[in-house]
Amino acid sequence: MRLEGEVSVTAGRDAVFAALRDARFFASCVEGLSELVEVDATHYTALMQTKLSFMQFKFRVSVEVTRVDAPCEIEARIEGKPLGFLGRLTAVSVTTLAERDRETQLKYAIDLALTGKLGSLGQSAFTAKAREMSQRFGENLRAAFAACPCGVAP
C-alpha cells in the first residue's frame, strides 16, 4: 500500500530538516513511539504501539536512514515485527521539503507492506490507521514549531 501526504510547517526548511534528522525530536512527534535507541547516525530501534479497532499492536521496529540530501530529502527503510503476532511490516519512506514564503512544505510517500497474519487482518484497516498516525504526526510537528518563537523546534 502507498500513503502520501503533505504537512505545512511555519518555519524555514533548514530548521525543519534539522528537526527531522534529530531522532529524539522525530520520535516525540510520532504517536505511540517509545524506547528509541540510536544505534549510530543512520540506524535506530524503537517500540511502536498502536490500537487498531479492538486490537492492541506492539512492534519492534528498526529504521535505517538510507539517503539524505540536505535540506531537501530524507529516505528511510523501516522493518518491524509485531510482538506476540505473526507477520512483518516493511516500509520505505521518502520525505521531501520545499520552502515557500515563511513555511516549509513537507511531502511524504510511504510504501508499506504487511505480511503473514498481520497482512491478513486487512490492508484497508491499516491504511486508515496509518493515515490517522500521519495526521497526528503533522499536528505534533506544527505544534512543536509553533511553541518556539524562534522558528526552531525544541
Give a written overview of the molecule.
This protein is of the alpha+beta class and 154 residues long. The chain has one domain: Alpha-D-Glucose-1,6-Bisphosphate, Chain A, domain 4 (2-Layer Sandwich). Helix content is 29%, strand content 50%. It contains 4 helices and 7 strands. A 7-stranded antiparallel β-sheet has the order 1-7-6-5-4-3-2. It is globular, with a radius of gyration of 15 Å.
Short description:
With 154 residues, the chain is of the alpha+beta class. The protein has helices at residues 13-21, 23-29, 116-120, 123-146; strands spanning 2-9, 33-40, 43-52, 55-69, 73-82, 88-100, 103-115. It has a single domain (2-122), classed as START domain (Alpha-D-Glucose-1,6-Bisphosphate, Chain A, domain 4), CATH 3.30.530.20.
Any chance you could write out the topology, listing elements then pairs?
Elements: E1 2-9, H1 13-21, H2 23-29, E2 33-40, E3 43-52, E4 55-69, E5 73-82, E6 88-100, E7 103-115, H3 116-120, H4 123-146
Antiparallel strand pairs: 1-7, 2-3, 3-4, 4-5, 5-6, 6-7
List keywords for this structure.
single chain; 154 residues; alpha+beta; Alpha-D-Glucose-1,6-Bisphosphate, Chain A, domain 4; seven-stranded antiparallel sheet; 4 helices; 7 strands; 29% helix
Mean pLDDT: 90
The proportion of strand residues reads over 45%
Radius of gyration over C-alpha positions, nearest whole angstrom? 15 Å
- In total, the number of domains comes to 1
Q: Main sheet?
A: 7 strands, antiparallel
Strand order of the largest sheet: 1-7-6-5-4-3-2
Q: Structural class of the secondary elements? A: alpha+beta
Number of strands: 7
* Number of continuous helical runs: 4
**The CATH topology:** Alpha-D-Glucose-1,6-Bisphosphate, Chain A, domain 4
The span between the termini is 33 Å
